[in-house]
Amino acid sequence: MTPGIRHHGHASLKVGVAKALPIHMRKQVLEVSSVRTEPEYRGQGWATELLFSTCTDADIAGKFLMVHVKPDADSPLDRNRLAEFYSRFGFAPIQAEPLLMVRPCIGKPCK
Q1: How many CB atoms sit inside 10 A of residue 74's CB?
Q2: pLDDT tens digits, residue range 89-110?
Q3: How many CB atoms lie within 10 A of CB 18?
């Protein structure tokens, strides 16, 4: 799975190296950030489809995904609702402040 910006319709996100983690863990964990849907297209499933395909690609690559749950200023979701959104994809909290969630790779042994 290659780090970089991913798009699906009107949604985008960034997959990158989780630089906050110790070096020995960075090969196994990628960070998802900047998940965004243009305001006029929110609620239509664009981010859901994009995150689903990103999780599938991570599973195929045998990678964990990590996300820092922090809504943008213009987000209609507060932190709790955003955490609920990520939990639908298998992310679980590992730290409360700041709120970090991790999703293990599913269906393939993690590398």
Answers
A1: 7
A2: 999 999 999 999 999 987 665 5
A3: 21
For 4-103, CATH number out of 3.40.1280.10, 1.20.120.350, 3.40.50.300, 3.40.630.30 equals 3.40.630.30
Residue identified by tokens 């859901």 is 48
pTM of the predicted structure, to 2 decimals: 0.90
Q: Dihedral angle at the C-alpha atoms of 103, 108, 109, 111, nearest 10 degrees?
A: -70
Please list the ranges in the chain whose pLDDT falls under 70: 107-111
- Provide the residue type at 92 as one letter: A
Q: Whole-angstrom Cα distance, residue 5 to residue 14? A: 4
